[in-house]
Automatic annotation (TrEMBL):
Signal peptide: 1-31
Protein known as: Tyrosine-protein phosphatase
GO molecular function (one): protein tyrosine phosphatase activity
Gene3D superfamilies: Protein tyrosine phosphatase superfamily
EC number: 3.1.3.48
Superkingdom, taxonomy of origin: Bacteria
InterPro entries per the UniProt record, alphabetical: Prot-tyrosine_phosphatase-like, Tyr/Ser_Pase_IphP-type
Keywords on record: Hydrolase, Signal
């Protein structure tokens, strides 16, 4: 995320970016270390696009039947608002078919529109944060450590994230956006999707697609948790700035929001079990993906 000058702009930028943030503490940090140890090398996972830190290729993952997801077909990322001219050229070399931006209008207004190669369709399929950005804006701009502790401390920040992940499954408007993206991927019109920092909405979209084409759950989890590793430097810098500006005395309160945690992914899966009984039923009944679409997904994403 871009570090802004004024305190208000910093807070608004943080609020938008926290909808898809970076480094985690405690269990998430140790889980990220485990994921990094078992995931493909960074050089094979990250895609060099100047101005991004979490732009990834979804190729190279083994499926249950021994096949492998294709490289150079589908990518996930954080917002593209900081992509440099050289980064745009690097993206052009990927020959993208289309981009989906999951950010809300407020996030785009706070942090800026995407920068990407001319001629590539870019569709905004906004996924609501359930009021998280508004809450964070109020918390950070208050500069009140007591209020910040009351809202984010003692597990409450993590609960905000768990609640948001449940809406990914339970909210019909949100399901429609993920479904439209999955159909675009299957039809070959979408080859990149992103949110603010590429970890939550992009993370769940990735979990949907990898699971749908037969990538084992453990591998899906590892891919999800890699965001902690790749976004750590930027998140550390952000927390230092908030501390130095006096807006927060304890920026570590933000860790559950800036990171990904296995509990968040598990919360979405639990919501699927409760509502649909199985992931397969979620794909067909929840997202409305018919068998032909699922077959096309497999054909496009798996060798």
């Amino acid at each position: 995320m871009r570090i802004r000058g004024s305190r208000t702009a910093i807070a608004l930028g943080v609020g938008a970016a926290l909808l898809g943030g970076g480094i985690a503490a405690g269990p998430a940090a140790s889980a990220a270390q485990s994921a990094a140890a078992h995931a493909p090398p960074t050089a094979q996972r990250l895609v060099p696009v100047e101005g991004t830190a979490n732009f990834r290729d979804l190729g190279g993952y083994r499926t249950y039947d021994g096949e492998k997801t294709r490289s150079g077909v589908l990518y996930r990322s954080e917002a593209l608002n900081k992509v440099t001219p050289n980064g745009v050229a690097q993206m052009a070399a990927l020959k993208l078919k289309g981009i989906v931006d999951f950010r809300t209008a407020a996030e785009i207004a706070a942090n800026g529109p995407d920068k990407y190669p001319a001629g590539v369709p870019n569709t905004n399929l906004a996924v609501s944060d359930g009021g998280l950005m508004t809450t964070l804006y109020a918390v950070i701009t208050s500069g009140d450590p007591v209020k910040q502790e009351q809202i984010l401390g003692n597990g409450r920040a993590a609960q905000l994230m768990v609640d948001m992940y449940r809406t990914f499954v339970d909210d019909p408007a949100i399901r429609a956006q993920f479904a439209a993206t999955a159909k675009g991927v299957a039809n070959g019109t979408v080859s990149l999707y992103h949110c603010s920092a590429g970890k939550d909405r992009a993370g769940w979209m990735t979990a949907i697609l990898l699971t749908a084409v037969g990538v084992p759950t453990g591998t899906v989890n590892q891919d999800y948790l890699l965001s902690n590793q790749y976004l750590k430097p930027g998140n550390d810098a952000l927390k230092q700035q908030l501390l130095a500006s006096g807006r927060m005395q304890n920026p570590s309160l933000l860790d559950p929001l800036l990171g990904v945690d296995q509990r968040y992914l598990d919360a979405a899966r639990a919501a699927i079990d409760a509502r649909y009984g199985s992931f397969g039923k979620y794909l067909t009944d929840g997202l409305g993906l018919d068998i032909l679409t699922l077959v096309k997904l497999r054909q496009r994403l798996v060798t």
